[in-house]
Design goal:
Layout lengths: L43 H8 L5 H11 L7 E6 L2 E8 L5 E9 L18 E3 L2 E3 L7 H17 L5 E8 L7 H10 L4 E4 L4 E4 L5 E10 L1 E10 L3 E2 L8 H14 L8 H11 L4 H12 L4 H8 L11 E9 L5 E2 L2 E10 L5 H12 L5 E4 L14 H12 L6 E7 L5 H5 L5 E3 L4 E3 L11 E3 L2 H16 L2
Parallel strand pairs: 3-6, 3-7, 7-17, 8-18, 9-16
Antiparallel strand pairs: 1-2, 2-6, 4-5, 5-19, 8-9, 10-14, 10-15, 11-13, 12-14
Length: 463
């Protein structure tokens, strides 16, 4: 889930990219708040060690793994630029190619002054764990490591090597991800704890579980306009701020074409069977007829689901002017696009150029270069194992493929031919975790649930 990328919105549609959940629910520090929650006291140190870039998350985790019996040679910290990645090998019999487990150690920035609680102190309150990264994705990291440690203690001998790959800059440049993909792309498949997962309705009832099998391409563009500038007391008609405002009005009014694929159709049909009201009816209607314009309009009106049926491009940052008393000489805006699978980055750039229709504007793609990755065909063995692990907790929940609106580390492996599947073990309500946002949280119940999920999943797939 990103960002270059993953916004990750969080992982499921309506759960941001995957990964973000955005419906704000403020909360004070209740009397029962505590720094060491009962659900996961063992994870407090790992959480604190990994929240701020460069504070030793990889080193701390390596010590825990070596203390649990992993050979130092099987725990590698890989420096890349200002950060590092981590690779942990759980050795099997070598009967098949390695199975990769994927996560990331970095988080999106959090400003203490903006939060109700200290974002860098794990707290449990009213059944939730609070802190930056608790949903995206410190819990997933700790759960995968705890699962490997448990398997080691149990003497489990997998047929495949299990290789845990934790990147260090998934939320920014993904340089560590590219390095990991270059080193470990000769694999059976990849299981990503930073995508997929279960959805609860507003009453806490499980609705559906999605295996992320595709994700949208992440791309940033910059639109720049310039003028000679001058004294602010002598305004001119070519003020680039005003011209950019007109261009952005045109961009805001443009809806990209409606699209679908078998993965999004299956996902919308499953969700539509449980979603109440007009949105649920529209999901079912669209699943039955993707050319239903009324259904598409209803889905597009919901921020959580518009990305499931369209490419989206939105202005995110703006920079301009150089002095309070001078006419601006330049102004630029960053436009973040999440591009539907099968649509090229160049075609989206051309569309943006046509939409703003401003010959005085310069439009460029920003680095790093976007990565276009294909969908992963859903393997029967992965589907069966995930379904069994989900049904061990919720026997009647439907398990379907899904597409992330955001982007994850999986895209760098998919583009090198590795089938990738997002299989977060948590079930959460739509728009409830605030991943990437203020007061990020996760139900404390999901920690033991994820531990059970991953243990069953790995012992099934790697036996």
């Amino acid at each position: 889930m990103d960002e270059t990328c993953s916004d990750r919105p969080r992982r499921l549609p309506g759960r941001d990219d995957d990964h973000c959940r955005t419906r704000h629910r403020s909360g004070g520090n209740g009397a029962d708040a505590r720094h060491h929650g009962d659900a996961a006291p063992r994870h407090q140190h790992a959480y604190r060690a990994g929240l701020r870039p460069g504070t030793g998350a990889a080193g701390y985790l390596a010590k825990q793994l070596e203390a649990a019996g992993f050979a130092a040679s099987d725990v590698e910290i890989i420096p890349v630029g200002h950060t590092a990645a981590m690779a942990v090998r759980y050795r099997g019999t070598g009967a098949g190619k390695p199975i990769l487990l994927s996560g990331h150690m970095d988080v999106v920035e959090a400003k203490r002054a903006d939060w109700t609680r200290d974002p860098f102190t794990l707290m449990e309150e009213n059944g939730y764990l609070y802190g930056r990264g608790v949903a995206d994705m410190k819990t997933g990291d700790v759960v995968m490591i705890q699962t490997l440690i448990r398997l080691k203690k149990e003497g489990f001998k997998p047929s495949h090597d299990l290789i845990l790959l934790l990147s260090g800059d998934e939320e920014t440049g993904m340089s560590t991800t590219r390095e990991l993909a270059k080193r470990y792309h000769d694999a059976e498949f990849l299981l990503n704890a930073d995508a997929g997962g279960g959805t609860l309705d507003d009453n806490g009832k499980p609705v559906v579980y999605e295996i992320q099998a595709a994700e949208k391409t992440y791309a940033d563009f910059e639109i720049t306009l310039t003028s000679p500038g001058g004294h602010s007391s002598e305004p001119t008609p070519d003020n680039p701020i005003y011209r950019l405002a007109h261009d952005l009005d045109k961009l805001a009014a443009y809806p990209f074409p409606v699209m679908s694929n078998p993965i999004t159709i299956a996902s919308l049909r499953a969700k539509g069977e449980h979603e109440q009201g007009a949105l649920g009816k529209a999901m079912l209607a669209f699943a039955n007829n993707p050319h239903d314009a009324k259904a598409a309009a209803t889905i597009s009106a919901d921020p959580a689901y518009v990305g499931q049926i369209r490419t989206t491009c939105v202005a995110t940052t703006i920079h301009g002017g150089h002095a309070l008393n001078a006419l601006p000489q330049s102004v630029s805006v960053t436009v973040n696009c999440r591009i539907f699978p099968g649509i090229s980055v160049d075609s989206v750039k051309n569309t943006l150029t046509q939409v703003i229709a401003d010959p005085t504007a310069t439009l460029v793609a920003l680095p790093p270069a976007p990565v276009e990755s294909p969908a992963s065909p859903l393997r029967p063995d992965v589907l069966a194992a995930v379904t069994a692990a989900v049904h061990a907790r919720f026997p009647n929940v439907q398990v379907v493929p899904g597409m992330s609106n955001g982007a994850t580390d999986s895209m760098h492996f998919r583009t090198l031919g590795v089938p990738c599947f997002g299989v977060d073990g948590a079930f959460t309500k739509a728009n409830d975790t605030f991943a990437h946002g203020l007061n990020e949280k996760l139900p404390a119940s999901e920690v033991p649930a994820e531990l059970a999920f991953w243990h069953q999943l790995l012992t099934t797939l790697a036996k």
